[in-house]
Each structure stands twice: as C-alpha cells, then as structure tokens.
C-alpha cells in the first residue's frame, strides 16, 4: 500500500551550503555558520569535506552552542553510486565521515548515472544509461534507508517533473525534498508549483548566483543576479542587502535557500533575512526579472557518447 506523504520538515528557512568549502577551511566555515545561526547544513559525498563538517558540528555540540536535535543535516548520494544496494552503503559512509548516527535528509544528487569510481565523466563509457539502472531502483534503496532509520527524510536534487514522476509512480515513500536551482533569473514556477502541490519541499541552489564557482564551470559572460540593476534598486529602497532581498523572495515563495558563504558578516546578514516579509508588489517586481537563465547546466553530462540529453534534465 502506498503511504501518504507527510512532511515533517522544515523549521529552517535557510541552509548553509558546503560545496567549495576548502578542506582546510571547512571546520572554521561550518563553525562560523552555526555560530551565526544556521541550523541546516547541506553536505554531499561529492564535496569531499564531510569529515571536516562533522568535526565542526561536534565542536559546536561540545561547546553547548547547539544540540544534535537542533541541527538538520543533509547529505547526498553521488552519481557513481546509483542502484538499490549502494544507497545504504554510501549513506553509512557519509554518517561515518560526519560522525553521526542519522541524517535528517538524504538526497539523490542528480538523476544521472556514472560508472563506479567516476567523479566527472570524460567520455561516453563513463556513463550508465538510464534504462540500465532505472531511478526507481535507486529510490528503493532510499526508502530502505529511511525505513532503517538512517535518515529522517529522503529526497532528490536536480529532478524535473518527468524524473520525479518516474520515481513517484511506484514509491512507498514519496520524495520529501527537491533541491533545485532557483533565483530571480530562474523562477522555476512550474516545477516549484508541482513540488509544492505534491508536498515536496523545495530547497534552492545558486540562489545568489554562485558567483565564486570555479572558472571551468562558469561562463565568462554569465549575468550576476546579486548585482542585477533591479535587485540593487529594490534592495536600496527597502534598505536591505541584495542577498537579503533574494533570500526573502525565496522564503516568501516557501522555498528554502541554500547559501554558500565563508564570511561571518555575510552569514549573519543572510540568517537575518529570514524575518523579512515582502509585499505582493515587490514580489511581482522580482518575479518579472526572470530570464530562464541557468548557472548550472547539463554540459558536463551531455558530452559526446553520453546517453543523456539536456531535455532529460531540464525539460518541464
Ligand atoms: N545539489 C546540487 O547539485 C548543488 C549544486 C550547486 C550548489 N549546491 C548547494 O548549494 C550551496 C550554495 O552554493 P551555490 O554555488 O549555489 O552558491 P550561492 O549561495 O548562490 O553563492 C555563493 C556566493 O554568494 C556570496 N554571498 C553569500 N552571502 C552573501 C552576502 N550576504 N552578500 C554578498 N555575497 C554573499 C558568497 O561569498 P562569501 O563567501 O564571500 O560570502 C559566494 O561568493 C552549495 O554550497 C551546495 O551546498 C547544490
């Protein structure tokens, strides 16, 4: 029998992202984030810094800044570990690195499959075709992880409606979270509506334009949403920062932004933004900025010989 999805999350309106936290700085970055008020930490196997994140969490607990129960810890399954039998194994590895007994969320990082040990594909043979291990198989492993109490919630990341429907068709537990790119240049109205109607919490990546991404994954002429003329104008009028305006716009849409910051002043500013309410008029002005622009595209997965297409990831 299918279980009706019940979403126990999300008290937290903002998440600290740990992608691009350098290993040597991760302890300080996460410690600063928790001290600044972040209570939800977004991790992933692919970020290769979960040990350092774990050390910061335990130091904060030891110092009495937080209890484990105050924190919401997310991690993600990397693309070379799809398949029912791999999920619990990989989740347990993240738990071991983080020094935790359970996660609050575990997500499938991407609906793309790489061969075991491939971090980023360089040729067609690095991929596994989607019909070889259907996403439903991996989802069964996710359900087993939740059933075993290793994670409180399960979800996905970078899934469009077609991919969500693929796993929801036979699901015992529905996905509870979808982590996707949303910012004023990519409103994602249709996908966000779909998720909200299906009680799937949306957490957003690249919310501030992911400005400090490495050059190899960044177009030279990409627009900077944080410095957009309209965003600057409206935030000046409201006497808040551009980052705060974008965070408030996301929160006002029921979306939980994941923000990467290494700067404690920015961190405090970002956490304070969760209390900002925007008028319908301001929301409409920001909604009008959309230009369907993606900072994270599918280029790394749509290389010669790849069985994947851009539509597979992003067509709505
Ligand atoms: N699931 C996925 O596939 C996926 C993909 C991408 C990202 N993510 C997650 O999303 C997180 C967010 O990363 P992102 O790449 O999306 O970056 P982002 O949060 O859009 O942008 C990060 C940039 O914003 C700046 N920033 C933060 N607060 C600011 C403020 N108040 N004023 C001015 N600048 C500010 C940071 O600089 P400072 O450091 O100087 O503050 C940094 O340069 C990642 O760490 C990761 O956890 C997930």
- The run of helices and strands is EHEHEHEEEHEHEHEHHEHHH
Low-confidence stretches: 1-10
Q: Count of DSSP helices? A: 11
Which word captures the global form? globular
CATH class: Alpha Beta
Q: What's the CATH topology label?
A: TIM Barrel
User: In which range does the helix fraction lie?
Assistant: 25-40%
Number of strands: 10
**From the coordinates shown, what is the CATH architecture?**
Alpha-Beta Barrel
Topology overview:
Layout: E1 15-17, H1 23-36, E2 40-42, H2 50-62, E3 72-77, H3 84-98, E4 103-108, E5 113-114, E6 127-128, H4 135-147, E7 151-157, H5 161-168, E8 177-181, H6 189-197, E9 201-205, H7 229-238, H8 242-252, E10 256-259, H9 264-272, H10 280-287, H11 310-314
Parallel strand pairs: 1-2, 1-10, 2-3, 3-4, 4-7, 7-8, 8-9, 9-10
Antiparallel strand pairs: 5-6
The structure holds NADP nicotinamide-adenine-dinucleotide phosphate.
NADP nicotinamide-adenine-dinucleotide phosphate is lined by residues 17-19, 42, 109, 157-158, 179, 205-213, 241, 243, 258-263, 266, 269-270, 296.
Quickly describe the structure:
The chain contains eleven helices and ten strands. The chain is α/β, with parallel strands linked by helices and 316 residues long.
Q: How would you characterize the overall build of this protein?
A:
The chain is α/β, with parallel strands linked by helices and 316 residues long. The protein has a single domain, classed as NADP-dependent oxidoreductase domain (TIM Barrel, Alpha-Beta Barrel). The protein is 36% helix and 14% strand. The protein has helices spanning 23-36, 50-62, 84-98, 135-147, 161-168, 189-197, 229-238, 242-252, 264-272, 280-287, 310-314, and strands spanning 15-17, 40-42, 72-77, 103-108, 113-114, 127-128, 151-157, 177-181, 201-205, 256-259. Helix 6 (189-197) links the parallel strand 8 and strand 9 (201-205). The radius of gyration is 19 Å and the shape is globular. The two termini are 29 Å apart. The structure holds NADP nicotinamide-adenine-dinucleotide phosphate. NADP nicotinamide-adenine-dinucleotide phosphate (NAP) binds at residues 17-19, 42, 109, 157-158, 179, 205-213, 241, 243, 258-263, 266, 269-270, 296.
């Amino acid at each position: 029998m299918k279980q009706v999805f019940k979403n126990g999350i999300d008290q937290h309106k903002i998440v600290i992202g740990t992608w691009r936290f350098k290993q040597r700085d991760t302890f300080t970055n996460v410690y600063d984030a928790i001290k600044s008020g972040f209570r939800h930490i977004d991790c992933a196997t692919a970020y290769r810094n979960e040990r350092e994140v774990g050390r910061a969490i335990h130091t904060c607990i030891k110092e009495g800044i937080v209890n484990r129960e105050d924190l919401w810890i997310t991690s993600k399954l990397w693309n070379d570990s799809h398949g029912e039998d791999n999920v619990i194994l990989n989740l347990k590895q993240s738990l071991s690195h983080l020094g935790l007994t359970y996660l609050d969320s575990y997500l499938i990082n991407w609906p793309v499959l790489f061969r075991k040990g491939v971090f980023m594909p360089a040729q067609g043979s690095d991929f596994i075709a989607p019909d070889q291990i259907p996403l439903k198989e991996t989802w069964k492993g996710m359900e087993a992880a939740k059933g075993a109490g290793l994670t409180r919630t399960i979800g996905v990341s970078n899934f469009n409606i077609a991919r969500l429907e693929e796993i929801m068709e036979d699901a015992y537990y529905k996905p509870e979270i979808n982590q996707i790119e949303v910012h004023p240049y990519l409103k994602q109205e249709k996908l966000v509506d779909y998720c909200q109607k299906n009680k799937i919490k949306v957490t957003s990546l690249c919310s501030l334009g992911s400005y400090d991404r490495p050059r190899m994954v960044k177009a030279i002429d990409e627009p900077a949403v944080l410095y957009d003329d309209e965003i600057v104008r409206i935030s000046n009028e409201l006497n808040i920062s551009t980052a705060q305006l974008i965070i408030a716009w996301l929160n006002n849409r029921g979306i939980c932004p994941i923000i990467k910051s290494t700067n404690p002043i920015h961190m405090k500013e970002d956490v304070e933004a969760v209390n900002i309410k925007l008028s319908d008029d301001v929301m409409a002005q920001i909604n009008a900025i959309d230009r369907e622009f993606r900072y994270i595209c599918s280029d790394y997965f749509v290389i010669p010989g790849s069985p994947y297409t851009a539509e597979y990831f992003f067509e709505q």
